[in-house]
Amino acid sequence: MVSQGSPAGNRIALTFDSNMTAGMLAKLARNPKISYANTRVLDVLDRDNAPATFFLASLWVQQYPAVTRRIAADSRFEIASHSYTHRGFTKTCYDLGTLPPNQMAADVERSFDILKPYGGHQTRYFRFPGGCYDKTALESIAAAGCTVIQYSVVADDPFNHNINSIENNVLSKAKPGAIVVMHITEANAPDTDKALPAIIAGLRKRGLQLVTLSDLLSQK
Fold first, then answer.
1. Which of 1, 83, 161, 168 has the most neighbouring CB atoms within 10 Å?
2. Contact, 123 vs 148, CB < 8 A?
3. 101 and 137 in contact (C-beta within 8 Å)?
4. Is the dihedral of CA 125, 129, 132, 138 positive or negative?
5. How many CB atoms lie within 10 A of CB 112?
6. Residue 11 near residue 208 (C-beta atoms within 8 A)
7. CA-to-CA distance for 50 and 212, rounded, in angstroms?
8. Backbone torsions φ then ψ of 56, nearest 5 degrees
9. Quick one: pLDDT at residue 1?
């Protein structure tokens, strides 16, 4: 199953990806003052009582265990997988490299194993790094027994310093049943938290109810 969102009453799901590649880890080693964990996003969601689903790359989890624990401890949040190494599951996926098909299921399963001890609202949802997948990738991860989740609304927040653009990218396409994708990787998406309050307020003004992905899918 690959879900990209579909009509479900007036519900809409905010999802956040945490990316972490070997290259990003190398940047952290060279410059420990940077961060790929935007905890201000969590602050906004907490303040505005907004549910969300987090697709966490396990290299990110291992780098930021305290932030992962904070996410897991919040009853409004749920946890999903964004792979272990965040390498591409297709031959071409941005600059992520390529994970061999015979390693794909193990990578996904390892990511769930790393997430499990954190508790909270665990799911078996999985989102491909970069959103890139094909028939081979789907067949290769079938043994992991997960549900692949894509998205229907792209905030385009990575490397985007235009807050109004991020807001408009979401609000112009939002509709019942939509799955919105944003990021909590601060160094790569530094202004997501600044756009988020207006996004939440704008969605609610339209009568859309913010829910977790599980709640959204259960209404289909």
1. 83
2. no
3. yes
4. negative
5. 21
6. yes
7. 9
8. -105, 125
9. 54
Name which of 25, 34, 96 is nearest 63 in CA terms: 25
Q: Coil, helix or strand for 63?
A: helix
Residue whose structure tokens are 């988020």: 196
Instruction: Report the distance separating Cα 195 and Cα 162, nearest Å.
Output: 9
| Token couple for 59 | 């290299």
Return the domain boundaries, the chain. 2-218
Out of 3.30.565.10, 2.40.30.10, 3.20.20.370, 3.30.470.20, the CATH code matching 2-218 is: 3.20.20.370
pLDDT (mean) for 50-73: 98
Mean pLDDT, rounded, of the chain = 95
pTM (predicted TM-score): 0.94
**153 beta partners:** 180
Split at pLDDT 50, 70, 90, the class of 6 is low
Enter the DSSP assignment of 208: P
User: Coil, strand or helix: which one is 139?
Assistant: helix
DSSP H helices in 55-171: 58-63, 65-73, 101-115, 135-140, 163-171
Q: Which whole number is the average pLDDT over 57-65?
A: 97
Q: Are 112 and 151 in contact (CB under 8 A)?
A: no
Total length of the chain = 220
> CA-to-CA distance for 23 and 220, rounded, in angstroms?
39
What is the tens place of the pLDDT at every residue in 125-148? 999 999 999 999 999 999 999 999
How many other CB atoms are found less than 10 A from the CB of residue 205?
A: 9
DSSP 3-state assignment of 144?
Answer: helix
